[in-house]
Amino acid sequence: MARQEKPSPEVIGEMYDRLTDSRADAFGGNLHVGYWTDDHDESPVAQATDHLTDLVAERLEVVPGERVLDVGSGTGRPAVRIAVARDVHVTGVTLSENQVRLAEGRPETGQGPGHADFQLADAMWLPFDDASFDAAYAIESLVHMENPAAALGEIARVLRPGGRFVVGEWYLLGPLTGDDAADLEDLSRDFHVHFLPTVDEFYEEMNRAGLKIEIFHDIWANISRSFQLVEEILPASAMRLGGEIAEQLTVCGEIYRRFEEIPQISYALFTAVRH
Ligand code: SAH
After folding, report:
1. Does residue 32's CB lie within 6 angstroms of at least one atom of ligand 1?
2. Nearest atom (ligand 1) to Cα of 32
3. Cβ–Cβ < 8 Å for 7, 30
4. Closest CA relative to residue 173, chosen from 152, 191, 150, 197
5. Which of 33, 219, 220, 256 has the largest count of CB atoms under 10 Å?
6. What distance in Å separates the CA atoms of residue 70 and residue 72, rounded to the nearest whole number?
7. The pLDDT of residue 38
8. Measured in angstroms, how far is the CA atom of residue 13 from the centroid of ligand 1?
9. Is the pLDDT score of 3 beyond 60?
10. CA 159, CA 134: separation in Å to the nearest integer?
11. Minimal CA–CA distance to 109: which of 76, 139, 73?
C-alpha cells in the first residue's frame, strides 16, 4: 500500500517522553502488562512483564541471524531481551526521543550475537525497504495509532512473505454502549487511545493489510493482576516525582482502572502471517 503523506502528531512521542522514566521503572523497564501463569505464580512485576515479552518472542518463530522489527519499542527492554534470547537483530522504532536514548543506553545491547538498535520513526511511515524484515511485533503500541490501516500496511510492506507479525494488545469483546462508550472517549483524549477494535474488526484490518491472523489467544486472566500493581505503584511514583509527571502518572493510573472496569475490554496475543 502507498505510504501516508504525513507523519502522525508528535503529541504521542511527547507524552511518552514525559512518562517513560517513571513508568518504565515501575514495570521493570517494560511499558506493558505482566503475565502470570496462574494464581500460584508469585513472580514480581518485572519478571511478569518479561514473561509477556517471552510469549511474543516464541510466537515470532525466528531463527538466529534473522531481522525483526519492534513497532513502538518503548525503552527497548523487549527488543534487547528478544535479540539476546533468539540471536536475532531487532530494530525498534518509537516516537519518543527519550525512549531512543534510554534504549540505546542499555548495557545488554550489542553483547553476544543478538543485537538491537533503535530509531525515531513513525509506524505509519516506516523508513525501511519492502520485505526487509523476517518478523515483526507490536506490544501495546497499535492502540495509539490514529491511522491503524496505514501502520498495518507499512508493517506488511516491510515484512517478507511468510513472516510473522505478533501483537500484544487491548481489544474489545463487543461494542461499547452508554457510559462505557463515554469513558472510552475520555480515554482516547487523555491517553491517545485511537484503535481499540473488536476481534472481528481487528481480523478485518489485518486482513486488508495482507496480514492473516492465525492464532488468537485471549490472556485477560493472566494479565489482570497488572491492574492491582498499577494501582499500588503509580501513586507512589507520582508522590515521589511530583509536578507535571505526577499528574500524567495519575491520569495513567485512572486509565488502567477504567480499562479494568469496562467489561468489554480484554487483552490478547494475536499471531499473524504476511501473505
Ligand atoms: N512495546 C513497548 C512500549 C509500549 S508503550 C513495551 O512493551 O515496553 C507504546 C510505544 O508505542 C511507545 O514507545 C510509543 O512511542 C510507541 N508508538 C505509539 N505510536 C507510534 C507510532 N505511530 N509509531 C511508532 N511508535 C509509536
Report:
1. yes
2. 7
3. no
4. 197
5. 33
6. 6
7. 94
8. 8
9. no
10. 6
11. 76
* Minimal-distance CA residue to ligand 1 atom 17: 72
Residue 9: how many CB atoms within 10 A of its CB? 12
Ligand 1 pocket mutation, candidates 144, 155, 191, 230, criterion most atoms within 8 A of CB: 144
HSE value, Cβ hemisphere, 13 Å, CA-based, for 201: 12
The grid coordinates listed for 149 are 490501516
DSSP string, 82-129: HHHHHT-EEEEEES-HHHHHHHHT-TTTTSSS-EEEEEE-BTTB--S-
Q: What is the mean pLDDT of residues 239-262?
A: 74
- Cα(40) to ligand 1 centroid in Å equals 31
The SS3 of residue 165 is strand
State the average pLDDT over residues 116-131: 96
Q: Which residues does residue 246 pair with via DSSP β-bridges, in sequence order?
A: none
Residue type, 41: D
Residue 125 phi/psi, 5° resolution? -155, 70
